[in-house]
């Protein structure tokens, strides 16, 4: 980038001028990665998880080959390195024969093509439709699709796939490994952390708020959420539910108490400016007590909170009809 695009003095921004945030709880941080940039660990029996500290994938070794769950491009070729490491240690096959897609997003399956044309790709019917639309060679469309339920059996192992309504995306599925006491549900709950921007950029906010309830209906002990430091527990999902309940309660108070009239009085015919002033003020009011309660409890409780509160506030207005003004 040329200097003039950065302004007159491109060196003027220093780290001391960047915003400071509450420390991340020690329990939320990722395990150290190796010299290749990944960490691989056992979840339960022959189920493993692999992370680069930002993204998570998982794989199951079987006598007939490896079942891989997602292929984030940020982990990329380290997926096979992690599988090779475990396969050598346990004297089991290292060939990925099946690749299960959690949902269509490129940041979770954009390394799919690394596993070649012979891998059996399994995903929701909507995942196939969205991938055909994207026409991205890095993400071949699934060969095997399902609408509500599918049981994948490989090498004597059972993997139950379920679609229980839209949440983060229209196609996001619940991947349950009953014999490994594990549930994989990506981009809904990030154990130990507050949500990513705009409530995980969820396309369906009410569906995403309800998804942890669906997740807890399954019997499991280990949870794989797809991002950041660690595996999750049932307590992590309960904490996330409380966090969302607190946001909803504070948004409801803000919608009932913030007066929009001063914003319209100030901005006159600039309606968007008035609406922005009102929504920003309501979001900030709702966010403040949530930040105070969760700083030091969830990582980054104070980082994306305003956009997450705004996403939930707008959904409460538009999806639920709360806080709208009825002309007298
Ligand atoms: Zn996603």
Automatic annotation (TrEMBL):
SMART domains: Lactamase_B (SM00849)
Keywords in alphabetical order: Hydrolase
Membrane-spanning residues: none
Domain Metallo-beta-lactamase: 54-227
GO molecular function: hydrolase activity
Sequence segments annotated as region (Disordered): 1-27
InterPro entries, sorted: Metallo-B-lactamas, NDM-1-like, RibonucZ/Hydroxyglut_hydro
Annotated PANTHER family: ACYL-COENZYME A THIOESTERASE MBLAC2 (PTHR42951:SF4), METALLO-BETA-LACTAMASE DOMAIN-CONTAINING (PTHR42951)
Protein name according to UniProt: MBL fold metallo-hydrolase
